[in-house]
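Anyone else keep sequences and structure tokens together like this?

Example one:
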Amino acid sequence: MWIRLWALTQKELILLFRDRKTLIAILIMPLMTLVLFATAVKTDIKHIPMVVADQSSSSSSRAYINSFLTSGTFEVVAMASNEKGIRQVIDSGNARIGIVIPPDFAKKIKRESSNVLMLIDGSASYSSQTALNAANAISQQYAASIMSQSISSPLTIHTRILYNPDMKDLWFVTPAFIAVLLQVATMNLTSGAVVRERESGTIEAILVTPIRPIEFMLGKTLPNLLVAFSIGMLLTGFSVFIFGLPFLGNIVFFCILSLVSACSGLGLGLVISTAVQTLNQSVQLTAMVNLTCMFLSGVLFPSYAMPLILRVFAFIFPATYSVPLMRGLLLKGIGADELWIGTLALLILTI
């Protein structure tokens, strides 16, 4: 068995290292993708364009507007005279939020009964929700600052943010993208392995040899496992030494976890390669699986917020398990005692 397996592994290694340009692209593309995603994805949106209709033109209304500007979340890009003018600016796409301050704002604010109209562009849900939450918080702070009587709260809250005290988007996004990109890279390595043999006509020559199916699968997997492990180490090393991502976990357990994650991704790629009939079908199915995984594995959106049927469907993707494992290992520094369930799930998925 070992002689047959080594012969097939040698064949795959020769094919893998013969095309060095493709091999370099396989190693570099996940790194470039990580850099683009890590630097482009921002959950804390700043400088949201805002249009203001200040019908009061008083010191109170100007102070209210300044409270939005000093927060850094909003930026006034235009002034309007009424609600119609604000709608025109929002419709043109130049602003996401508009505020109409009534003429009697200064008089009523002293009696703590003034009203302000906010118009928010709901066509961009994420930025709109951020603008709504930030605008409400700023308005409440402004109202509290001008109250004539100071009301002391009976409850004092002390907040401590664990593992990411500065709430850096990079620390949140990067470990998850390492897990997802490792799955994408490993699937791309093996998703065409079997179907390529079928299309080129060499599968018949392999079938007449004494090689067994399990040996054939292992021979296709082991050479690519070396490349996949190198990709995982490259992504992690770049994130730690260039992006400043903390590495608080055990390096040995991290290597084991990376190997298990790579094996599960390679296995999923082999499933695709044996299920399709042409290489073109393999490319399309792999792209569809990777895109679905991006939304269901908890990279950008929490999995517990999804419907139950989607959460169950997400269990077929290796990244569903490796994303929380990577975050726990890199950011929290927890080890096998807390992460063994996810690691066992990856092993079962690989088998």
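And example two:
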Amino acid sequence: MNKENISILCGGISTEHDVSIESAKSILKHINKEKYTPFIFYISPNKKALLYKAKNKIKIPTEDSMKDFFTEVIKLKNMRMNINALHGKFGEDGMLQSILEFLNIPFTGSKSNASALCMDKYRSGLVVKQIKEIKIPKTKLLPLGSITKEYKYKKENICIKPNKGGSSIGTIFIRNQKEFKYSLNFLINQFPNNEDFIIQPIIKNNIEISCGCLQKKNGTFIKLPPIEIIPKNSQFFDYKSKYIKNECNEITPPLHISQQLSNKISKVTIQIHKILGCSVYSRSDFLVKNHYIYYLETNTLPGMTDNSLLPKEAQEKGINFTELINFIIKNS
């Protein structure tokens, strides 16, 4: 049997560079090597690139071996499919997708328009608000440097996070005036480009839920069960809870909501995927309180590490990691 060349796009220029590498490692580990010959397309933080044939492990290229991104990206035309395992800026926000679309290079996941929309938490929330079963937390959008001038902090618990970010990087819970001032100073140092942040009230005593869906080429869906997220040592599903093993209990199907509500979330996740124009697969995040479903965001390139949510949901449906990768390739 002739094997097909498949590349795994990873690395990138965003703060989620290392997470992307972990996703790529898991994909390389689980991809069917009897069917596919895997290649790695590594993008460095300064946007140089290198395509190379993969062995058993991902090797980060040396700086002097890297090439100009646009010179190297043309080589992806020789691949049967290019698995996008990038996260965050440039990889997940529609920019890379636009380049690949222009060059007529096949890639997995959503197209550029849906990717850009979903990366924008504020505007995608406005679209999802049309779904009657969904509530959206009251949200204010401001440039980070303008928050102290334009947002009057009241004695309330709030969450501040980047409007176009992922992996909970830059997400901070604030409970008093002292934390408010300290957190803003910290974020301004961490995010010097004055990007937009959103401010939302904290919904206390919530149940944190995530749910993915898989879309076939013919437009039909595989409905996945939601997964309940219970961090062990954090206030919320932060970076540590997401990527360090045993830092979080992830239960699928959820333990603390009814089967009826669980089914409703699976159904709504497909509606969100459709209304945002996503393709192949996505994962949406929610908070549940008093049977109300609060929408947070949709990930068009959800994590694909061994500890990630989407593979765990697929496994609960009887789809192992190798079969999930096959599905994504086949339906892209």
